[in-house]
# Entry
Amino acid sequence: MKFDTVIIGGGLSGLTAGIELARAGRKTAIVSTGQSAIHFSSGSMELLGYDRDRHPVENPIEEIAHLDPVHPYSRLGKERVIELLKRVKPLFEETGVKVSGSHQRNHWRLTPMGQMKPAWLTLEDYLTLESPQSLPWKKVAVINVDGFLDFYPRFIEAGLRQRGVECLTASVTVPAITHQRESTTEMRATNIARVVNSESVNQLADVINRTCPDAEAILFPAVIGFDNFEASRRLKELVKRPLHFVSTMGASVPGVRTQLMMQSYFRCIGGAFMLGDTVTRGYFSADGRRLLSVETANFADDHLEADNFIFAAGSFFSHGLNSTPSGVFEPVLGLDTDAPDDRSAWFDKNIFKPQPYMRYGLTTDSSFHAMRGGRTVENLIVTGASLSGADALREGSGAGISLLTALNAADTILTSKN
Amino acid sequence: MDYQQANISDNNFENCTKCTVCTAYCPVTAVNPDYPGPKQAGPDGERYRLKKPLFYNEALKYCMNCKRCEVACPSNVKIGDIIQAARIKYSTKRPSLRDTMLANTDFMGNMATLAAPIVNGVLSLKPVKKVMDATLKIDCHRTFPKYAGQKFTTWYKRNAAQAQQQFANKVSYFHGCYVNYNNPSLGRDLITVLNAVGYGVLLLEKELCCGVAKISNRLIKEATRDAEVNLKAIRNAVSTHKAPVLATSSTCCFTMRDEYPHLLHLDNAEVRDDIMLATKFIYELLEKNQIKLVFKPGFKMKVAYHTPCHMEKLGWTYYSTSILRMIPGVDLTLLDSRCCGIAGTYGFKKENYRYSQDIGEPLFRQIESINPDLVATDCETCRWQIEMSTPYRVENPVTILAMAIDADATRKANSIG
# Structure
C-alpha cells in the first residue's frame, strides 16, 4: 500500500501529526499497537511544570531558556515554540475537544491524591485554579460513586483541609451503576462512563442536588462521558451548584474521550487509523538514507510504502524503546539511541533522585530526523516521548513535547520538496 | 534475562500490565455484569486457573470472542484467545442440543436448502418461534436468515464451473456456509467482478464450515476435523494454482488464519498469508495497476460501512473501504467501529438476546442518523443483526462493487474477450 506519510504510533503525538497532514490533503496512515498512553491522561496537559530544582514554574515560556541545549524545546528554539503553541488550542477545538489554559501562565489542577500541580491546558469540565491557595470556596463536597474502585475522597479531603477548605464527603449511586456494581471488579471509571446514559444523568443530578446541601460546590470523579461531552455537560447543567470533575486513578475517561475524538476526527478527514496492528520491520534504501516501507503484523507482505515516516511510538512505557542489561535499543527499525552502554549509569539508586534513563530516547539530527548506524535517515522524523533529552514526568513536559514536535514534523514534511 | 524472555506464553499473558484498557472496549462488560470482563476473565483469571482449574468460572461463556480486547491491548496480550482457550480446556458443561444445532451450519444448511420455501415459511411462523424459544431457548425475536432454493455450489457446477477454465489467471474461493445456503448471489457477484478483470474463480476440492460456530459452542473435536479438511483443500489449491484462496466473510477468513493455529492448534503457517479477503486481493491488483475497473455512469449511492469485530481484528477495513471509495458516486461514511451484538450464534440464544440488542444499540442509532441507501459490511451475521434491528438493507462490499461496475466495459478495459 502506498501513502504519503506513515506514522508509527497512535498517541497524542502521532494523532496530532496525522491530523495536520491529513488536513493538508496528504494520504496518511497511523499504525498503533493497541490504544495509547492518552488513556491514562489526568485531564490536563503540561508544557513545563517544574524547573531543574522541582520548583513550580509560573511562566513556561521564560523557563525554556534555562533548559539543557539537548532538550526538545531548546532544539526547537523559543521563537518556534511560541509559533507552534498558537496552533494547539485551535487543533483541539477542531476535533471537538475543548480545553482552557494559557502557555503564558500555568494554572493549577487538583490531583486524585488531593495535591495541586501546575498545568498548561485542562479539559473544559475540570477544576482549574489560579494558584494552589486560591480555592474559591469555604465548604465543598467530594461526592464519590458507590463501589467505584479508583477514587479516594479522603485523600482529597486531607489535601483541601490543609488549604483551609472544609470538606464534606458522600457517596451516591443510580440504578444503572448499581446494576454495573454486580460485577465488583469492573467498577472502573471507563465502565461507569459506559453505563451512564441520559436517563441516569438526570437521576444522578437529582441525587447530587440532594446531597450535602450546605456545600458551595461539588467535586465529582471524572466518570462521565465515554466518547463525547454530551453527558458531562448535561450533568453540570442539571446540578444546581458548580460541579467540577476530578481525575481518577486507572484508565481515564477524559483520556479515552480525547483519544476517541481525535481518532474519529483523523478518520473523518480521510486518515487511515490502523488500530491493533504493529510495525514489525523496516526496509531501507541501499545507502540507508531512506526508509522505503514498513511491514506490519496485519498487512504482512503488503508493505506500507511512503515518502515520509514519523516515529511516534513513545518511550519505554509504549514499547518505542526497550532495554536488556546490555543496552537500550529501539526494537523495530534498529534506530540509534542516546544512551550509554554501561548499565550502572542508567539510574540513581536513590529512587527519589532524577533517573538518567528517563531522558533516554532516539538520536536525532538538528531537524529531528532519526539516525541509523550513525547516518541520518532523511525521511524519518522522530516526535514526542521517543525523543531524548527530557525527563518529561519530572519536569511536567510530556504533552507539550508530544504536541509541538508533532506539529513541527508535519511542517517539515509539508514544506519538503518530495 | 534469557530465562525471563524465554518464559513468555503463546498468549503473551505475562505481558499484561493490568492497565484495564481492554475492559473499556469490551462490548459485554458494559451491558452484562455477570461477565467478569476481559482482564478478569483473561490474564487475571489465567493466573488462578494455572494454579487450580477449579477457579474456572462458567461466566466466561458470555465472552463473544469479538477480540476487541486484543485490538485495544497496548501490550499485545491475546486476551480473547486466553478466554476461549480456558473455555475449551476447563468447562465441564456439555454443549446443549440447541448449541449443537446452531453450530452445525453445514448439516442444517444441507437439510434446509432441500426444502427451502417450506423451511423459510415454517421458521418465520410465530407459533414455531414460540416453540423454539420455549424448548430450544432460541430467542423468539430472532428470524433465521432465509435459505436459498439452490446451493451456491450447485449453481456453480451447473452454470459457472466450465467458464472459469478459460482464464489464464485463477484464484480459489472459500464461499462459506452463508453464501452456499443463504446468499448465493454474493458468490455470483464475486465471480462477475473477478471474471471481468480476467480472473477465473475455482472452488476448493472440498469445503466445510470454517468452524467458528463449532468453536464458540465448544464442539472442538468436530471443528478440528472440519478444519483439517479445509486446510488440506487450501494447501492443494495454493500449491496447484499458485494463487490465494479468497473469502467474502471476514469471520471465515479470520477463523482459518488465526483461530486454527491459536485455538485448534493446527499449523497453517505455509498457507496463512494465502487466505485473504476478496477485497484485499482486488485492492492490491488495482494498486499495482494490474487490473482496471469501469463504472456505470450515473451510479449513485450513500453507503455506511460497518466494521465487523473480526474485520477489526484482521485490520483490513482499509481494503474494503478503499474499494468502496473508488466507486464514483459512492458517498461513504465509516461508522464508529463497535460490535453489532450478534457474534454469530451468540445473539440467537435466549439468554443473550437482550445483551445482544443493548450492545448493538449505539450502532443502530448511528446508522439511523446517517440514513444511508445501503449499509456495507464484510460479515454475514452483522448483516442479519443490522437488518433485524434497523430498517436498512445490508450488503457485502463485493456486491456493491458488482452493482457499480459496467462488466462489459470492464472486460474490454482488461482485454478479456
In short: Chain A touches chain B through 46 residues (CB under 8 Å). The CA atoms of residues 261 and 268 of chain A lie 10 Å apart. The first strand of chain A starts at residue 2 and ends at 8.
